[in-house]
Amino acid sequence: MIPCPISDECGVWDVLPKHNLDVMNSLDYFIVENTRSARRFLSRAGVARKIEELEFVELNEHTTASAEVERMLRPILEGRSAGVISEAGVPGVADPGADIVALAHRHGIRVVPLVGPSSILMSVMASGLNGQSFAFVGYLPIKEGDRAKRLKELERRVLQEHQSQLFIEAPYRNVKLFETLVRSLQPKLRLTVAADITAPEELIATLTIEEWRKRGVPNIAKRPTIFILGI
After folding, report:
1. How crowded is the C-beta side of 7, counted as CA atoms within 13 Å?
2. Which residue from 23, 63, 85, 135 could staple onto 32, CB 3.0 to 4.6 Å apart?
């Protein structure tokens, strides 16, 4: 499980341990979310083999049949090792790579996670919210009524269980989500906005909903952003 940088604006070895390169150099078969971005990452990382010599298969939201995933595992069952690469950050977390990992475990194949940047963990680290108990809930519903209902559920979990709630949105809808948050939630709740983690323009700020109402919308339009609710 090979992490890659979250942002293209930072150097590969600014955010990854150099030991990862030894593992990457030992592989010629990669299961990736996107071939183009994976090839670019490996090239930037300076892998020893020529990119043209490497084999790539894609595992992403378009991979619908379990037989496709099984075919991806076949070379591993025959003795080859494989690297799993997400488009950004760590594979297998909020990422289709979990499907191949689950199948590998069923076949008794060893799965090795390498160290690298996770926007989910890094946003929790920098939030000041509860890092002892937190949940990543992915995307919220798009429809306004369903979204408001879901937010109230998350608000109850924060208040009753003191569990931090993490979620994301398509970057072009970040501002609309933020406006819904400050309009719908209790003033005393705290909200962390973490955008472009590890990039030079990284933004991480935690304020109460009431404070965000006074400050206004942060600069998060079309920027990859993690939102966290807590107390």
Report:
1. 18
2. 85
The ranges assigned to domains in the chain are 12-106, 119-230
pTM of structure: 0.91
Check: CB of residue 38 under 8 Å from CB of residue 30. yes
Q: Specify whether the CB–CB gap between 166 and 135 falls below 8 A.
A: yes
Task: State both tokens at 6.
Answer: 């979250």
Residue 214: Cβ-neighbour burial (10 angstroms; 0-12, 13-18, 19+):
exposed
The packing angle between helices 174-184 and 144-161, to 10°, is 60
Superfamily grouping for domain 119-230: Tetrapyrrole methylase, C-terminal domain (3.30.950.10)
Q: Which option is the CATH number for 12-106: 3.40.50.620, 3.10.129.10, 2.60.40.10, 3.40.1010.10?
A: 3.40.1010.10
The residue among 138, 207, 194 whose CA lies nearest residue 170 is 138
Fold: same for 12-106 and 119-230: no
